[in-house]
Please model this.
Amino acid sequence: MFALPRVALSQSEVPWRLQTAVYGLGLFSTSIYHMSNVVVPLYAVMLDPSPVTLGLVLSARHFLPLALSIHAGALMDRIGARRVMIAVTLLGIAVQLLYPAMPWLWALIGLQLFAGFSDLMGWLGAQTMIGQYMGARTSYAGRLSSIIRVGHFFGPPMAGAAWDAAGPWGAFGMIALWGVGSLGCALMLPKPDDDGIAAVAAEHRRVRVGDLLPNADDYLATFRLLALPAAAVVVLLGSMLHVGNAVQGAFYVVWLKHLGIAGTAIGTLISVGAVGAALFSLLTSRLVRYMPGVWVLLLTMWTAILFICATPLLGSYAFLAAAMFARSGAIGLGQPLTITLMLRDAGTASQGKAVGLRGTVNRIASIAAPLGMGALVEVVGLERSFYAVAALVSILMAGIGLYLLRRPDLVRATEESCG
Model:
């Protein structure tokens, strides 16, 4: 079959069977999240919740990922990502089928906990594989970042159509079927007894009950990664993506509705963004040949936030579409680097932990940023909130830039790790 060393891989050495499995995991797991964002609110409204309960239903999807991202990452380091991926994809399929079978609000909140854990772990697992089997190369991370946008583009409309045609059973059944794709990709990952593709050492370990339980030492070892300056900078810059997403998820849609733009037209803008991200993700590995990776990451994350914060200044739908394309393109350029820079800095023995750390910090940002945005609107109003976020982020980014200018050794390290 194939011969695959575990580290220091060149592109020609990674078989397409393995690449397909990793990219497929990312595509199916991340698009399940976007499909659920269409179906779960529709289902919850059918159950007649109070506004507070509805908010709890939608927030519950983030709770277990926040608590267990680091544990899941450490588990992938300890027993291998393949085993973890098979377990969480099976969980995800079962949960989707339980949604319509248990039409009670308390059950919906509980199912949201496990659904959120499953689809996030699929994405974290795909990133970990980039490190464990693909040498943490930016070109592979760029392909992953590009391919997942296919699911983001097609998944939500498919879920909405299934809801319209067959109600909750049809919609959740569609998402469960999508989850079978994740399971199939997980089963394609290398096994210890494969003749050609070499599994990582952890896949050969015998699994004990103690391995499956959260371990305080794993959390301490993971947070120690923040003592590495490059890791701390990458985690901070990566979390800025979620600040921009919070603006897009709250201020942006409200502002577009204020302009009288219809829901279908708003959805089209999001699809335009998915196209921009998919195209530009493929250019990252070329760009880092000319500019150190950490500078690319800083500039792209900064640019992405400035484009979304410029929304009140854009007077026409064409300008809004162009800005969304450019914003998402900047995210597409930067996202592969949030994966590879962190993996390279962590080393081969801690790549799952590194991905789990990023997942935890991103989850904190995903929960805290919307709350902060709401408070900001209360204080300065909707339009000024866009400008206030742009100003605050610009101050932070300028500070990080000055730090990087004083740390040429850190910049050189990221330049060397972005092949």
